[in-house]
Design brief:
Elements lengths: L20 E5 L2 E6 L9 E5 L8 H14 L2 E5 L11 H8 L4 H24 L2 H17 L8 E6 L1 H9 L15 E5 L17 E8 L5 H13 L5 E10 L2 H4 L5 H21 L1
Length: 277
């Protein structure tokens, strides 16, 4: 399992304005993005990165999924308001600057990082968040209003590991229904390869860059080989050249290449869910 890397908590803010709404869904505060016309083809639940359900980039991504795919998109607050404050991205950038004044300020920036990260790690350990995630998906699968709709899960960074494990064969409701039908992950964190990949039984799409310190290329190839040997599990693994961890959510708007890859990863997810919905 890789430790938290710089790219986990750096990046750029989107300037778009989210168009969805907030609601209480199955006991959790949830950002809801709805299709602009007609009934939804299915439900996509976003398990967000460390910046959580309020982060503007994550909300804009949910809006885009709903618009492009005609999906009902939920992004629950699985972190119970303990997500990392996105302002830390500026602090991290300052920490890595050079120069006399920058070096003098590093101790200040270090304690700011400590202040943000330690509570997040403590409050969002697996023993706390996994039951919360399982309950939400179980309630969603069992609710009369949504039980007829296929359910997909999209996970990013911190949430990527959660979605990979939702694709295991043993993640079911009390009456034996699978919690999800299909999964998609972009630059997942904390994965142990091959251990966390071997139990996968549900369809899974993976988007990852060649400069991802959480999931480096050699591990990506091991992941791909394991999935290719699972003839019963449909999958795709798409590698984005020179893309860093976080590129699907926090890419540089000033870089044509990064913006193109952000859109490609978004379209990859929409196409994958559309295939199964």
């Amino acid at each position: 399992m890789a430790p938290m890397c710089k790219d986990c908590v750096t990046g750029f803010f989107k300037e778009d304005t989210p168009t969805g709404r907030e609601a209480m869904i199955h006991g959790l505060n949830t950002y809801v993005a709805e299709p602009s016309s007609g009934p939804p083809k299915g439900i996509v639940v976003i398990v967000a990165d460390a910046f959580g359900w309020r982060f503007v980039n994550n909300r804009v991504l949910a809006d885009n999924y709903a618009r492009k795919g005609n999906f009902l998109v939920y992004m629950p607050d699985f972190m119970a308001e303990t997500a990392v404050d996105p302002s830390i991205m500026v602090v991290i950038d300052n920490f890595y600057k050079s120069g006399l004044w920058a070096n003098f300020m590093k101790i200040f920036y270090f304690f700011q990082c400590f202040y943000h990260f330690i509570p997040f790690i403590y409050h969002n350990r697996d023993g706390v968040t996994n039951p919360r995630v399982d309950k939400f998906f179980s309630d969603l699968r069992s609710a009369s209003a949504t039980e007829h709709l296929p359910i997909g899960a999209a996970g990013f960074c911190w949430g990527g590991e959660k979605v990979v494990k939702l694709c295991y064969g043993d993640r079911n409701t009390a009456d034996g229904k699978s919690l999800i039908d299909v999964g998609y992950v972009a630059h997942p964190s904390k994965l142990s390869v091959p251990r966390d990949i071997l139990p996968i039984r549900r369809p899974l799409s993976v988007a990852v860059g060649t400069r991802d310190f959480q999931l480096p290329v050699p591990k990506v190839e091991v992941l791909r080989t394991i999935l290719e040997k699972k003839s019963e599990v449909e999958h795709e693994v798409i590698v984005y050249q020179d893309a860093k961890h976080g590129f699907a959510v926090r890419g540089d708007p000033g870089s044509e290449k990064e913006q193109k890859q952000t859109v490609q990863a978004e379209d990859q997810a929409v196409a994958w869910f559309s295939k199964w919905f």
